């Protein structure tokens, strides 16, 4: 690689799903602010389609490449091979200095693997998350482990994630603890909403409930009986708590849509709505009394907004919030979920305990730390301060 500091380095940013887009958008914006140092090329695989496009609009990002790999009913191996074929052509045409990926999706792993084949350096955002169970979450746990052992630079969101990487033999100088970029994205949207609340678009009736439970549930490893139990728990809570509104933006996956509508359709205080674009979803999180979820990102966003998070999973790769008490693992058993929700609805002290603690996932400056690290490693530059060039 040319060490001339005046030569911009080409960074190919690859993502395919809504969570990746949300978490990489602030990094892309920060790279674009340093256009003298970095030429930023965006490639999306389209592993998610409609939900991905919504995020691109929020952050005003326009991809240079769109592989459009997803077709109806596609298998994981189909996504993998289509992404590998498409990314091979992009790498060959662009010859980037660095490929930047995020998280633990199939897109993440395939992009890292393609870069390795072309002997291009890989930087991994949100590195080091682990459950220690290769099938939980599936297939994300293996995707992130494999990406770790391809990547050259590792941006760990927390010290615990850094420790995981060190245990796996990653060199300390290749790891930077940054906080999680989802907090950067969250604060960006929160500030936009504060200036213009009308940016949030959802049914007006959702603002009228004094207490609202916001639900997200869509994880592949829960499909089947576990997912049915989760839906039955939501049904029981709704029927026993007519004063509480339950809002569920339902994931587009047919394995989610079918049981959700079968079990929850028609209940007076349950609103099954289409997936929301990110700005509106953030606004709903701010309105919510409780976040009931199997999502990874919401475990990070909830504490930043002062909301208690009940996690419908048996294990989490994000133990920091659970350790300090802003999130709680409640599993997928319906009785356990119901009990946990009842406790927060009926016990103000318990609710307060979960909402008045610091967010363990960062201060909103993760993207700055990532870009400054890349300056040091790709240019041998040391930025004078941790400050954005945003006007």
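Q: What amino acid sequence fits the structure above?
A:
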């Amino acid at each position: 690689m040319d060490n001339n500091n005046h030569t911009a380095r080409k960074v190919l940013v690859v993502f395919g799903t809504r969570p990746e887009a949300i978490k990489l958008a602030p990094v892309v914006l920060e790279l674009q602010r340093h256009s003298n140092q970095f030429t930023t090329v965006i490639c999306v695989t389209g592993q998610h389609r409609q939900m991905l496009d919504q995020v691109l609009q929020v952050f005003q990002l326009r991809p240079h490449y769109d592989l459009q790999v997803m077709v109806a009913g596609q298998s994981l191996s189909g996504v993998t091979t289509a992404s590998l074929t498409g990314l091979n052509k992009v790498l060959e045409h662009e010859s980037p200095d660095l490929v930047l990926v995020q998280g633990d999706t199939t897109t993440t792993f395939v992009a890292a693997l393609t870069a390795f084949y072309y002997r291009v350096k890989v930087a991994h955002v949100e590195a080091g998350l682990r459950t220690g169970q290769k099938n939980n979450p599936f297939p994300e746990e293996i995707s992130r482990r494999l990406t770790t052992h391809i990547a050259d630079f590792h941006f760990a969101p927390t010290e615990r994630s850094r420790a995981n990487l060190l245990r796996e033999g990653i060199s300390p100088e290749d790891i930077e603890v940054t906080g999680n970029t989802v907090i950067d994205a969250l604060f960006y949207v929160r500030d936009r909403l504060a200036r213009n609340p009308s940016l949030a678009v959802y049914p007006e009736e959702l603002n009228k409930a004094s207490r609202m439970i916001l639900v997200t549930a869509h994880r592949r490893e829960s499909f089947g009986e576990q997912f049915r139990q989760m839906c039955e728990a939501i049904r029981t809570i709704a029927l026993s708590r007519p004063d509480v509104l339950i809002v569920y933006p339902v994931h587009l996956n047919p394995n989610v849509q079918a049981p959700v509508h079968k079990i929850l359709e028609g209940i007076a205080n349950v609103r099954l709505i289409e997936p929301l674009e990110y700005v509106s979803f953030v606004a709903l999180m701010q309105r919510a009394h409780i976040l009931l979820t199997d999502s990874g990102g919401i475990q990070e966003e909830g504490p930043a907004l002062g909301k208690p998070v009940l996690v419908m999973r048996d294990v989490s790769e994000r133990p920091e919030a659970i350790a300090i008490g802003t999130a709680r693992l409640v599993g997928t058993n319906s009785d356990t979920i119901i009990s946990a929700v009842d406790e927060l609805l009926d016990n103000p002290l318990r609710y307060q305990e979960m909402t008045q603690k610091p967010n363990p996932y960062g201060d909103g400056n993760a993207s700055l730390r990532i870009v400054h690290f890349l300056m040091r490693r790709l240019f041998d530059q040391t930025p004078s301060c941790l400050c954005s060039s945003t006007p």
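Q: And what stands out in the fold?
A: The chain has two domains: 9-180+363-379, 204-355.
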